[in-house]
Hints:
alpha+beta; Helix Hairpins; Heat Shock Protein 90; 3 domains; 14 strands; rod-shaped
Amino acid sequence: MAWVTSWRWAERARSLRWRVAAALAALALLTILAQSLTWLWLLERQEDAFINQQLHEQMAHSMALWREHPEAALPNSPAMWLYREPFRPSSQRVEAPPQFAHLPVGDHEVFIGSHEYHVLVRADAQARYILVYDVEDHEFRLNRLFWSTLAAALLLALTTLGAGYWLAGRLTRRLGGLAEAVEREVPEALADPAMEREVLALAEAFDRQRNRQREAMARERAFAANLSHELRTPLTAIRTDAELLSQLPDLPAAVARRGARIVAGVDRINSLAASLLLLAREARPGERLPLALAGLLDEVWQRSLDAVPAGLPVPQLENAVAVDCQLLADPALFELVLRNIFDNALRYSADGTVRCWLADDELAVQDSGPGFAADELGHVFDRFYIGRRGLHGLGLALVRHVSQACGWQVTAENAATGGGLIRLRFAPGDLTIPSHTVD
């Protein structure tokens, strides 16, 4: 629990609202402490001056009174004592305690244990006078005032902290609303003339950035659409001519192979153009229908095998998904995701096995290839990433693009038993798994 508490405090310390409140509380605490300590220092100086004045007046009065009336009683109270030591033997002699008797003529501060004493020593032609004052009550009052002031300062700081946190929350509420609007991609302008000047500047900067991004996306989509359209006509003509050429009678086998290679190359270019067009567009799922997942896996796998050139080794599909599992999804988009995952598995599995199974809300597809390079796992879904094992292409980039549009999560890893493993986690409620599903 200690690390959870420290994490929460660390998160709170990074909050602008909390920092504003803490700064106000610290400023209030420092201000009241500085002011209070200054007042206490001035009060102590004034009270010391008052005590010294009273002692001087008492000493002068006692010395004058003794000269006129030697039999007069000396002042003796719980906090003040006067000791009189005549230079000649006398019955009025009152000797001071040893800790005060040795003090020379003058004003002194004497500390005995935790007690502080102010001591005045005077002398005339007849005697030596020692006036002692215990300032314990004075120090007690000052200490009580100090702790009362400190408690009041802490209470004020806590009050300021709460008030500052509430006030900072009101001031930063627009920032939170602005962040939420950016996250939800609200189409309306974010700037509002009623906003505070600093928040308005930030909102206007967001609006300008969003406009630039929209313009760039529009240009990219227009370019991809135009490129796809312009390429389609000549590529269709090339493919048609290649098909007709390969169907001529008495055609040499080498020429027929080249014709088939041309057709396959044109199909690959068309597929690449379609992928680029889909990536440029904002993929949005249409009508979601219940799909029989196991049967759809077999169908898409078979279509992927049909695209493999004749004579090349092909792996086997091990479909461990229960027949009555149903997925609620856009059929076209999900088939696109499956086809690209299977194409990636076919590329690396040779004549091995490709396994499919379900675990909770997750579809796993494992090939029997060498797996992903450890340092390239973070780039598996990047477009045209060139790693140590060659160009990744657009297939898995399309998988991630469509998955994000459908609310799914796709990840790649290396299986413990060997081979690459693609995990596709569906959104909650999309997948219906019967209790007897095989993992």
